[in-house]
Amino acid sequence: MEKWFVTMKKADFNGIAAKYHISPILARLIRNRDVKEDAQISSYLNGTAADLYDGRQMKDMDRAVEILKEKIQAHVPVRVIGDYDIDGVNASYILQEGLSGLEADVDADIPDRIRDGFGLNKMLIDKALEDGIDTIITCDNGIAALDEIAYGKERGLTIIVTDHHEIPYLETEGGRSYQIPPADAVVDPHRPDCEYPFKGLCGAAVAFKLVEALYRALEEDPGRIRHLMEHVAIATVGDVMDLQGENRIFVKTGLNMLKSTRNGGLKALIECTGVPVDKISAYHIGFVLGPCINASGRLDTAKRALALLNAKDAEEASRLAEELKELNDSRKDMTEQGVEQAVEMIENSSLKKDKVLVVYLPDCHESIAGIIAGRIRERYYRPVFVLTSAEEGVKGSGRSIENYHMFKEMNRCRELFTRFGGHKLAAGLSLPEENVDVFRKRINELSGLTEEDLLEKVSIDMQLPIAYLSQKLVEELELLEPFGKGNPRPLFVEKNLRVISPRIVGKNQNVLKFQVEDARGLRMDAVYFGDVGACMEYMKHKSKMAFTYYPSVNEYMGRRSLQITVVHYR
């Protein structure tokens, strides 16, 4: 079930429209995204890289820069330790590339998902010591590695943490006691003592800010590393960060850079996946390029994705891109099987009654647990944990819904886990096998979720008759891009539309085409990509329907025509 509601935020839409030379429809859409002050509206519509905050405002950034200045001048070996996902791979590349540009003695290591697990561990530290490394910089990890960092420090390593995850804490009578690791510098905008104005950066963005601050401190031109913003854009979209504030600027700027990228690996990946380079969008990162980069860390080693970004000749880049695409294709097949198993288990057991789904699939590849959890959450609209059998005990990933803060809820039963971390909407965990049922029971007892919480909320921008649609409006809506989490594509609604000649088309029979007609007899083409069979069946019994939709221009054989893409129906 869904609950539709139209967002009714108030503002002087005509005044905003006149001031910024936009239509009142666009003014309303911007206000619906909580952009209301003049400076915010101006930045939203016209923000550029010049509007980004100075990374030196982050707590410990000055210390991290001072340490790296000394290390570069002393020519001691520095190792970047990233994470095996799209954010960690791009953050590692940014640090390695940025430091190399300053002639630092730098290399990178990324943990193996199965063998090492998430983030910094003692094996990686021992390996660094064996290799004669002097300094470790973490990226997209490290904030939760208190014991591991203490271990490295005892053995004489200099350690800098750059991360963007929530700071682990203990609940005490006096409130929260934050557990900041004992590194030489800890740069994370979520630190309670960090006054950086924008908290929503991904790990690659924090890494970029460090490199930029370092170039400034060494009186080098930061323009030399500006091209690395395309990697921040890829990581921001791929790690599903909110496309607001600085993130929006990073993604907008980075997408433009990608159209003429100098990175041979990215060029090869764009080519082999068939992404239209001149029209590249956040969608292509999220659903085409990103999954290929992630697939290497899931099914093989993320070092392969890092090698793609580092590829020096076209032949090597092309080979690596093809390998990543193949890995992603097999990841898709494994995901489909896992989703089927999970659905079968839920439908044929008492799990179906739970408000928080804990699904244990021992034979599932642990690297795709998070993707399966996301798909199950979409299907049942509940928080979901998918657990799999690991080398030691059980590992899993969680994906949440809007009204359930996953990390906070897990904190309430933290004694059941050997490791855990995450944020409001996603989490990772390890636990002994004997705790699986206890965890399922406890997390449900603690949940406090109501039936209302479990209704998926469809937030609609405004009711808009199809007569108001025009190609000019569709073009104007492009000013709101890039779309994604925190900056959704505008969604309109219209009621009492008659459906004319619906038919299922497409190579895989997965597109429903039809026309809609309003009360005045105006007709428009429409298309729907959801469960087309169920929608077609529903249409047979209704003379008029309501649709949520967004407009687009369909180009066919050189002819451009307006159409609506239907998202929900009733």
What this model shows, in words?
By secondary structure, the chain is of the alpha/beta class. Among the domains are: 172 residues, inorganic pyrophosphatase (n-terminal core) (Alpha-Beta Complex); 106 residues, Diaminopimelate Epimerase, Chain A, domain 1 (Roll), CATH 3.10.310; 113 residues, OB fold (Dihydrolipoamide Acetyltransferase, E2P), CATH 2.40.50.460. The chain is built from 19 helices and 20 strands. A hairpin with a 5-residue loop joins strand 17 and strand 18. The termini are close together.
What would the principal axes of the Cα set say about the shape? globular
Q: Roughly what fraction of the amino acids lie in strands?
A: 15-25%
Radius of gyration of CA atoms, rounded to a whole number: 25 Å
Oligomeric nature of the chains: single chain
* Cα-to-Cα separation, first versus last residue: 11 Å
Number of helices: 19
CATH architecture grouping of the domain at 51-222: Alpha-Beta Complex
Largest sheet: 5 strands, parallel
Give the CATH level 1 class of the domain at 51-222: Alpha Beta
Counting helices, strands and paired strands, the structural category is alpha/beta
Question: What is the strand tally?
Answer: 20
CATH topology of the domain at 51-222: inorganic pyrophosphatase (n-terminal core)
Pick out the low-confidence regions.
Answer: none
